[in-house]
From TrEMBL, chain A:
Residues 78-286 form the ABC transmembrane type-1 domain. It is found in: Cell membrane. The chain crosses the membrane at residues 12-39, 77-101, 113-134, 159-183, 211-232, 263-286. It comes from Marinobacterium lutimaris. One of its GO terms (biological process) is transmembrane transport. GO terms for cellular component: plasma membrane. PANTHER family: INNER MEMBRANE ABC TRANSPORTER PERMEASE PROTEIN YDCU-RELATED, INNER MEMBRANE ABC TRANSPORTER PERMEASE PROTEIN YDCU-RELATED-RELATED. It is a multi-pass membrane protein. It comes from the Bacteria. This is Spermidine/putrescine transport system permease protein. Belongs to the binding-protein-dependent transport system permease family. CysTW subfamily. The lineage of its organism: Bacteria, Pseudomonadati, Pseudomonadota, Gammaproteobacteria, Oceanospirillales. The keyword Magnesium does not apply. Keywords: Cell membrane, Membrane, Transmembrane, Transmembrane helix, Transport.
Automatic annotation (TrEMBL), chain B:
Gene3D superfamilies: Periplasmic binding protein-like II. The keyword Signal applies. Keywords: Periplasm, Signal, Transport. It comes from Marinobacterium lutimaris. GO terms for biological process: polyamine transport. InterPro entries: SBP, Sperm_putr-bd. It is found in: Periplasm. This is Putrescine-binding periplasmic protein. Spermidine binds at D177, M178, R179, E180. Required for the activity of the bacterial periplasmic transport system of putrescine.
TrEMBL record, chain C:
Part of the ABC transporter complex PotABCD involved in spermidine/putrescine import. Responsible for energy coupling to the transport system. It comes from Marinobacterium lutimaris. The gene is potA. This is Spermidine/putrescine import ATP-binding protein PotA. The lineage of its organism: Bacteria, Pseudomonadati, Pseudomonadota, Gammaproteobacteria, Oceanospirillales. It catalyses: ATP + H2O + polyamine-[polyamine-binding protein]Side 1 = ADP + phosphate + polyamineSide 2 + [polyamine-binding protein]Side 1. GO terms for molecular function: ABC-type polyamine transporter activity; ATP binding; ATP hydrolysis activity.
Length: 295, 356, 374
């Protein structure tokens, strides 16, 4: 039998708890969910222990007949959720990118203060913060009151329960996830490189396109992934600020586990969502890595 | 925001949005652990019992009460199904009681033999699995009608008027609840709220699809919006009465003339209960009219304890919405377990919610 | 690249002022009235300690900072109105500032790429520039795969590829080791003559400045202390500051005893020296300086002369070809001398006579504060 030297032993001791923890609390539930998605739904929730691929068929295009029918609606919901997640990524990025530059140029005590302010919402519950947005956005809310008193509008705007409110809420919730990685890559950007580019005759726009953006791309990618993944599964914001008028993949999963008591189908939807995310993220990463290699 | 957090029957659904986080396979194991000799572990909806009742029980018996809460029947069932133990008493809705009886989760208590059970209105022994009350004690009930802002809508008596409000530029919201919304659509068609007839469901779906563009939102958090006048009227629980009593000039609640759905929860002892004797004692404790009344006054919902109703203050006892007369009660329909029919509802609901 | 006829006043800096606010609320003068003319083929060095304003001046010429007042003309037209990317100057940065996400070819070709030069022409010029700095065939590598010296050459190639009228070099050699630095100094000087353009070189290393420059601008506190050829700066420093900053010197304070057109006698307080400096007047206070290498030891058999300082040897350090002698004079002042190591070993405590040539003394009258004008 092969024996371990001291360093390997030390490594083993150090890594074992983390590995065990991850496998029990991360892979374990994932595995249970994967298995459940192939089981027959119990009449009153739970699962029956027989192989049942029809939950997948219901989403992806094959089904067995009476109860499980293929319905394109589930893929539509997934795509709609992906659309909302992408919109959230785009808006948070547009917002965070310039602000990151602005803050990174501040004196250091202001910097810390601003970063603290951006991370501050993390300290309170998301539900509470979304209630605050309801108070702002509703017809008699602060936003309309201010606009009315300034004479900008004559009638209250229909802000609440709209697509705008949903985007606003999503952006608000996910801004810190985008900001922190983008900020760290902006902060690490050597200002000399920008000078060098200008010095070599590049206009500010060219400098942005050829130096600043490629150099901060890793932060942008990390931020995008960090926002996209939870945004895809988020259903609280569409429910609370959008009035639940459109269903997101997250609502659908919730519905399956609760009102509809179809755990395997809920697990199936979750698995498909996870696979979809893996696909999107790895495609993204592959493309970037390829680009880095080619360059 | 403050208002939605104060107790009332309907508010227990509010936290539903959070429920998923706790659900499913990772959540096995009850949160109740240490078992002293004299304890009782309740698993109830959030804000669905007057804390004073629990204090009185402990004072009288020396039994310590632990309270854990859930926000939907399904959440409670799921937790028990994946093996949560340690709870003594749960508060399922009637149709959920039937499911739990099917699954053999409930203990026969013989509560109907206890003194004071004669005060229970037998018309509220609604569970099909327990027509005599051998298992569970009826706890509380209420209707799901309309709460509206009187400054915007002086008077409202029917669902028809409710759904006509958007045409007058007034906003309405409905509950974000599969059974309530489909049930209402069935009820307005003159059908049973428990119908699994595909044609009836199709008609209900069509009604919902036609109605959807008029409805501003589907939510449980309607009361503050109606209070502020941002929403004119909302489909909501009789628990709204607590706010109506606070602001009688602004708010009103009505059971519409077409009828409404109703809910009822019963107090049941679990088969796995570690403290069955204490649980029985609590049920008997609650049979006392003054205890039952103490709870009803705080919850402003319906009581099925006739002696307790006598003890209620006039404004609650005589309120046609809280304690409706027989004529109104006839028009209320309670949800039943649908069995495999749940799948049909799931599809109607998904279709409806996906439509734009 | 073609070398055109030199223009004498190619770069003209007039009354340049620039101040910075300090965090404490005060204000620091980074440039305090700088006037400077540079020829179009000159290798000129801005030399001074950190904070003297040399980098500020470079940044202003490059366009990274603005001037409070004054003017800068390049080839007769004002630079100050142009944004950095339109100025016909290029910069070699301290620590190189190579683009880490681009390979060497793309780094060097960057200036051509943003100018939209055709691919073929661009590639030809990239390899030409790399060849010029002695670094061919590395186009496909990444900056991180090169050594410090190689990165330095890439930075140089990148900066000259746009054929600037003037090259700004901001302490480009400071990160290199000693041997490589000396080698690069020579290469830089050669490159400059080959290109025939003006190099403005910023450094705090006086040796580097002396090695390469046509002229040196010694800066201190935002002012020009002295402007001159390396020879002038070294041998005829205009102020005590320059003296102390450039090379090693023995500096004495003294009073003139007698001054004739041929020589002066100066009292150092207990010791007397003879120096050739006709413009002094008796009784005047002066600073006198002499480089250590300008002393020599009198051989035992030579006749003694009055042109020597007597001192006691305290320590003798062997530094290769020479011995460095640390001595103390009778009046307690220290004096150091650099002596060829051909003599037999000297003993500490031994009395010596350090002989000098009267022409080796440099006298700075203390009434005069030398700056600005020049």
């Amino acid at each position: 039998m092969r024996s371990f030297n001291g360093q390997q032993k030390q490594l083993l001791v150090l890594l074992t708890p983390a590995t065990l923890f991850l496998s029990v609390f991360f892979l374990g539930p994932l595995l249970i969910m994967a298995v459940s998605s192939f089981l027959e739904p119990g009449l009153y929730g739970g699962v029956e222990w027989s192989f049942y691929p029809w939950s997948y068929g219901r989403v992806l295009g094959w089904a067995d007949g009476f109860y499980e029918e293929f319905d394109i609606v589930y893929l539509e919901i997934l795509l709609r959720s992906a659309g909302l997640a992408l919109a959230t990524v785009a808006v948070t990025l547009l917002l965070c990118y310039p602000v990151a530059f602005w803050i990174s140029r501040m004196p250091s005590r202001w910097k810390s203060f601003c970063i603290f302010m951006i991370a501050l919402p993390f300290f309170s519950s998301m539900i509470i913060r979304l209630y605050a947005w309801i108070l702002i956005l509703r017809d008699s809310g602060f936003a309309n009151q201010i606009l009315l008193s300034l004479g900008i509008i004559a009638e209250p705007l229909d802000l609440m329960y709209s697509g705008t409110a949903v985007i606003l809420g999503m952006v608000y919730i996910f801004v810190p996830f985008m900001f922190l990685p983008v900020y760290s890559s902006v902060e690490n950007l050597d200002p000399k490189l920008i000078k060098a580019s200008q010095d070599l005759g590049a206009t500010p726009f060219t400098t942005f396109r050829r130096v600043i953006f490629p150099m901060t791309l890793p932060g942008v990618i990390a931020g995008s992934i960090l926002v996209f993944i939870p945004a895809l599964g988020n259903f609280v914001v569409p429910s609370m600020l959008g009035g639940a008028k459109v269903v997101m993949i997250g609502n659908l999963v919730e519905q399956q586990f609760l009102a509809s008591r179809n755990w395997p189908f809920g697990a199936t939807l979750s698995m498909i969502m996870i696979l979809f995310m893996l696909l999107v993220v790895s495609f993204y990463l592959l493309k970037v890595m390829k680009k880095q290699h080619a360059a | 925001m403050k208002s939605v957090n104060t107790a009332a029957a309907g508010n227990r659904w509010i936290k539903k949005t959070l429920a998923l986080a706790c659900l499913g396979v990772t959540c096995a194991g009850a949160s109740v652990s240490a078992q002293a000799d004299e304890t009782l572990n309740l698993y109830n909806w959030g804000d669905y019992i007057n804390p004073e009742v629990l204090e009185r029980f402990t004072a009288e018996t020396g039994i310590e009460v632990n309270l854990d809460t859930y926000s939907s029947n399904e959440e409670m069932l799921a937790k028990l199904q994946v093996g949560a133990t340690g709870y003594d008493i749960v508060f399922p809705s009637v149709h959920m009681q039937d499911i739990m009886a099917q699954l053999g989760l409930l203990e026969k208590t013989g509560i109907n033999q206890s003194p004071g059970f004669e005060n229970i209105d037998t018309s509220h022994l609604l569970a099909e699995s327990d027509p005599e009350g051998e298992y569970c004690l009826p706890y509380g009930w209420g209707s799901v009608g309309i709460v509206y802002n009187k400054t915007l809508v002086p008077e409202l008596n029917s669902w028809k008027e409710f759904f006509a409000l958007p045409d007058q530029g007034k906003k309405i919201v409905m509950l974000d609840d599969m059974r309530e919304d489909i049930g209402l659509a069935l009820l307005l068609d003159g059908n049973s709220v428990n119908s699994v007839d595909p044609d009836e469901l199709k008609s209900a779906q069509q009604f919902l699809l036609d109605t959807k563009p008029k409805v501003s939102a589907f939510t449980y958090d309607s009361i503050p919006m109606v209070q502020s006048g941002d929403i004119a009227a909302a489909q909501w629980y009789v628990g709204a009465m607590i706010y109506v009593k606070e602001m009688p000039d602004t708010l009103a609640y009505v059971i519409p003339e077409e009828g409404a759905t109703m809910y009822q929860e019963n107090m049941c002892v679990l088969k796995t209960a570690p403290n069955k004797e204490n649980a029985k004692r609590f049920l008997e404790f609650f049979l006392q009219p003054e205890i039952s009344a103490l709870n009803t006054v705080q919850q402003t919902n319906g009581s099925m304890n006739k002696a307790a109703i006598e003890l209620l203050p006039d404004d609650i006892r005589n309120d046609e919405n809280i304690n409706p007369g027989e004529e109104t009660k006839e028009k209320l329909q309670i949800f039943r377990e649908l069995g495999t029919g749940t799948r049909l509802y799931d599809r109607v609901w998904t279709k409806f919610r996906t439509a734009s | 690249m073609a070398v055109s006829d030199p223009t004498p006043d190619f770069l003209k800096i007039k009354n340049a002022f620039r101040h910075f606010a300090t965090p404490e609320g005060g204000s620091v003068r980074a440039l305090d009235g700088i006037n400077l003319n540079v020829a179009s083929n000159e290798f000129i060095t801005l030399l001074g300690p950190s904070g003297c304003g040399k980098t500020t001046l470079l940044n202003i010429i490059a366009g990274f900072e603005r001037l409070d007042s004054g003017s800068i003309l390049l080839g007769g037209s004002s630079l100050l109105e142009l944004p950095a990317h339109q100025r016909p100057v290029n910069t070699v940065f301290q620590s190189y500032a190579l683009f880490p996400h681009l390979n060497i070819g793309d780094n060097v070709g960057y200036g051509l790429d943003v100018a939209g030069v055709a691919k073929k022409e661009r590639n030809r010029r990239v390899s030409e520039a790399l060849e010029m700095v002695g670094l061919s065939g590395v186009e496909k590598r990444r900056p991180s795969q090169l050594s410090g010296g190689q990165q330095q050459r890439v930075a140089l190639a990148r900066a000259i590829i746009n054929r600037p009228k003037m090259l700004l070099l901001d302490e480009p050699l400071s990160a290199l080791d000693r041997n490589l630095r000396s080698k690069m100094q020579i290469e830089l000087k050669n490159l400059q003559s080959e290109l025939g353009i003006c190099f403005l070189f910023v450094t705090h290393d006086q040796e580097e400045a002396l090695t390469m420059s046509d002229r040196i601008v010694v800066l201190n506190g935002g002012k020009i202390e002295q402007l001159g050829t390396p020879d002038e700066i070294y041998h005829r420093p205009a102020s005590r500051f320059v003296t102390e900053f450039i090379g090693e010197s023995n500096i004495f304070s003294g009073r003139v005893l007698e001054s004739t057109p041929e020589f002066s006698r100066v009292d150092l307080g207990g010791a007397e020296v003879i120096c050739n400096n006709p413009t002094l007047s008796a009784g005047e206070q002066v600073s006198l300086l002499i480089r250590p290498e300008h002393f020599h030891l009198k051989a035992a058999d030579e006749p003694s002369s009055s042109r020597g300082l007597t001192a006691v040897l305290e320590q003798s350090v062997f530094i290769g070809r020479d011995h460095q002698l640390h001595c103390r004079m009778g009046n307690g002042q220290e004096v150091s001398a650099l002596i060829r190591s051909s003599f037999k070993a000297l003993q500490a405590g031994q009395p010596l006579t350090l002989e000098y040539d009267p022409a080796a003394w440099h006298v700075i009258p203390e009434r005069e504060r030398v700056n600005e004008v020049i």
